[in-house]
Amino acid sequence: MSRIDVHHHIYPPQMYEGKYPQLRQHTDHSLTAIPALEAGGGDPSGWKTPEWTQQLDDALTSKTNIGTAIFSVTSPGAPVLEDGKKAAAAARQFNEYCAKLRDTNPSKYGFFTNLGNLVDVEPCLEEIRYSFDTLQADGVVLFTRYGRHYLGAECFKPIWAELNRRKAVVFIHPTHPYDDTKVNKHSPSPIFDFPHETTRTAADLIMANNLREFPDCKIILSHGGGTLPYLIHRIGIVADTPFKIPGKSYEDIIEDGKRFYFDLALSGSDVMLSALLEFAKPGHLLFGSDFPNAPDATIERGVGVIDRYEMSPETRKMIHHEAALALFPRLKDAYKNVK
């Protein structure tokens, strides 16, 4: 059964080849171009930037029966460049590269548009307009935080308002925590901290009432929602405390948690699938691989667990592509004969 992969990373060549015009000055005052990723100091999480080529991508999608990959530039993406103008320029180049690749085979490829630093609101709004109106992006990717601000912060309201106006699909991907102290050398942020960062920003969106204020945004949480399905009832307890939000009950918090969509990247275990199938609304679970950041062996093992897990044919079909088709209706013709 063909799958639509909503958690599928891409590393445009500008990140490797120095085509993005970052310049390093040497002691002899000469200048050389360096890659955007290196210019920003590398991935702050410490995770090694994986190799990405279209050939490697096609090989993985063939092995795992992925019919469509929705690309996202993350880990770390354009915001790693602290200069706002440079981050916005990098995001524009990444998006144009993704759009050109999408245009080579629109049923096989799609992309979430990349933005600069969300704190720089106006350049981000400009990129949203360009990406949706000109490049025809399938949605937008946001990180779990920008500086000290998680996504429910008041300063991001204009961005959410524009995305809501466009009824946008919003893919939220974690980044390293603000305090990136490692427990030990065997606990890299992407494995240990990312799920908690997803939960932090999801809880922030719930407490800020974003899901009700901007109800037309379809928000996908990475990696099965981090720890949200497990902790949502604990988060709801805030309604019984002095920290409660006026007018927001325990039941309201649980319901807001169910408004999210959840991808299954790195979620291929019986325990996680059981929790997600019980918690998520029908049609709110989506397939995700986390290629190429996750090793191929990890992806294939997770896919195997999902394929073996007992569920109805209707639920399996919904996870593989039907739920995604509701979010990306342009793909419906390509899947009309898929069983």
Automatic annotation (TrEMBL):
GO terms for biological process: secondary metabolic process. The keyword Endoplasmic reticulum does not apply. GO terms for molecular function: 6-methylsalicylate decarboxylase activity; hydrolase activity; metal ion binding. It comes from the Eukaryota. Keywords: Decarboxylase, Lyase, Metal-binding, Zinc. It catalyses: 6-methylsalicylate + H(+) = 3-methylphenol + CO2. Residues 4-329 form the Amidohydrolase-related domain. GO terms for cellular component: cytosol. SUPFAM superfamilies: Metallo-dependent hydrolases. The keyword Metal-binding applies. Its EC number is 4.1.1.52. Belongs to the metallo-dependent hydrolases superfamily. ACMSD family. PANTHER family: 2-AMINO-3-CARBOXYLMUCONATE-6-SEMIALDEHYDE DECARBOXYLASE (PTHR21240), AMIDOHYDROLASE-RELATED DOMAIN-CONTAINING PROTEIN (PTHR21240:SF29). This is 6-methylsalicylate decarboxylase. It comes from Ophiocordyceps camponoti-rufipedis.
